[in-house]
Design a protein that fits this description.
Chain B: This is PQQ-dependent sugar dehydrogenase. Chain B: It comes from Allotamlana fucoidanivorans. Chain B: Keywords: Signal. The complex is a heterodimer of chains A (about 130) and B (about 375). Chain A is mostly helical. Chain A has a single domain (about 25-130), classed as Cytochrome c-like domain (Cytochrome Bc1 Complex, Chain D, domain 2, Orthogonal Bundle), CATH 1.10.760.10. Chain A has helices at about 1-20, 25-40, 40-45, 60-65, 65-75, 100-110, 125-130; strands at about 80-85, 85-95. In chain A, strands 1-2 form a two-stranded antiparallel ribbon. In chain A, strand 1 and strand 2 form a beta hairpin. In chain A, helix 2 (about 25-40) packs across helix 6 and helix 5 (about 65-75) crosses helix 6. The longest helix of chain A has 19 residues, at about 1-20. Chain A is globular and about 60 Å long. Chain B is mainly beta. Chain B has a domain at about 45-295: TolB, C-terminal domain (Neuraminidase). Chain B has helices at about 1-15, 100-105; strands at about 30, 35-45, 50-55, 60-65, 70, 75-80, 95-100, 110-115, 125-130, 135-145, 160, 165-170, 190-195, 215-220, 225-230, 235-240, 245-250, 290, 295-300, 315-320, 325-330, 335-340, 345-350, 360, 365-370. In chain B, the strands form six sheets. Chain B has a five-stranded mixed beta sheet with strand order 1-22-21-20-19, with no helix packed on it. A four-stranded antiparallel beta sheet of chain B has the order 2-25-24-23, with no helix packed on it. Classes of the chains: A mainly alpha (about 130), B mainly beta (about 375). The interface of A and B includes residues 38, 45 and 90 of A.
Amino acid sequence: MKLYYTLIIILTGLPLALQAQSPLEKSIKRGSDLYEDFCVSCHMSYGQGIPNVYPPLAKSDFLMQNRKASIKAIKYGQTGEIVVNNKPYIGYMAPPGLSDDEIADVMNYITNTWGNKNTKMITEEEVSLVEK
Amino acid sequence: MRKSISLLTLILITCATCAQQTESEIKAESPVDFHYTTELIVPELNIPWGMAFLPDNSILITEKSGELILFKDNKKTIIQNPPNVYVRGQGGLLDIALHPDYENTGWIYMSYASSEDHEEGGNTALARAKLNNNTLVDFEVLYKAEPNTKKGQHWGSRISFDNDGHIYFSIGDRGNRDENPQDITKDGGKIYRLNDDGSIPSDNPFINTQNAKKAIYSYGHRNPQGMTKHPVTGAIYVNEHGPKGGDEINIIAKGKNYGWPVISYGINYNGTPFTDITEREGMEQPLFYWVPSIAPCGFVIVNSNFYPEWRGNFLVGSLKFQYLERLVVENNQVIKREKLFEHIGRVRNIKQAPNGYLYMAVEGQGIFKIIPNQN
């Protein structure tokens, strides 16, 4: 009986363990560390931003519907007005100086956290093709 | 019943992991009977991190992206041969200051993120150079913090001179809170003091301490991005970013420990605590702390005749709340705070120019002159 349960645990745990090793999961983990360093002081711990100053990333329509523009903003910085969840933000975000693979990791993290979901993984190559 | 008990337990646990913070006693108010306006003097700048006023009233401006700009006769000129800057996170081309005897020496001092050496990543550097035909010449690196790291956080790095020819500059903890600030054998989380030629003053506090970085003047700092000399006492004052809450104003004294991260009025960005004490013997208390954080940057203590009502007041930029904060200080106590020019944008820098006017640098906009209204 004990053996039976052990087997069940191993068999159900195995795919989970393997899944945790997927490239997307690994990228999200790296992205989480980069987020804590480069993004958190403005966009905050739960991606909520600061009202009227820094736009939210959590459940952000801009982020989830404008994949290329979001990559571009991180790669080259963001100027001028953008509208996020029906609210305008007029600010300047300096390019944080991340490499293309790091931008992919951050994008995979922020598009898969705080209720956001994006199964189509962002790759270094995709970031490299985004032009100014 | 059981359900409500477990819910209650859950609530209790949640509350226990959220640290309680005491808000600043003095709250920032909107001014009444305000008679100052701003005039945009230098338009179209992105992150005007530092500025220095030359004797001919032209302005040297650093852009974080690495450009050094000379604004003269209403025209911007890009200065050639600027420092080789490593743009990463909060790092880039940072502060700029003139030698107190600039007219005779010609020295211009700059702090910046540098990847000098052979490792990847970077750390804060201080250099000096002279300006000749819109080109920097005689460039010398005076200090370069080690080791290089790819962390994007907390480079410092404001520059000030005291009345005795020393140069002071700050380097933040470089995102290594638990190793750098409390260790005087490591760079980061420090205020440094050098002679104007980069040599180490013989009376620096740790000059005889084995393995210490001899340039250190004080330690236990997080990320000071405001520094100024008190116009009356000549003491060096800094303001520094806390994490979530716990920004501070400190008067810098020789060899002192300002406590980061052992003591702090701040908590982690995610709301969890990293320390439960705000004071300890042998560690300095701030002159003032901000809870919630305003994200202070730039610092001046006003002594110009153009602003008699503000004489002796502290002015500090707020990046987070996008105003200029005026703090009225009596006997080293903040007794009043005001939000000036609300919604103007992220205030990166504030300086009093030799002509007596205050100039404020705002991200995404440029440099504003603060003008007292007539009548």
